[in-house]
Amino acid sequence: MSSDLVDIKFRLYDGSDVGPFRYSSTSTVDMLKERVVSDWPKGKTIIPKAANEVKLISSGKILENDKTVGQCRIPFGELAGGVLVMHVVVQPSLAKTKTGMFHVDLGLFCSI
Which class does domain 2-103 fall in? Predict the structure, then answer.
């Protein structure tokens, strides 16, 4: 039964981590994204508003929402009970303006 559980932590854009959390191999990538959004640390400059703004990357591949952890994982022989690290990329949704142009709000500001 314990072989069906995977410990995963999520590495954010600034190098900080969320987790680790233990997941069943039947958990979907979408479920992981929901957890990342709900446990997002306070005070970050980039904050996802919804799970669809988050991309999870493992072993250089963007993971698809409908895939399970069991389907996505690489053979974990080298982990030997360790924690799998998934990288988190926040990609804010595009908002269409009245002019028909797309606007991306990155929440970045410059002051002089």
Answer: alpha beta
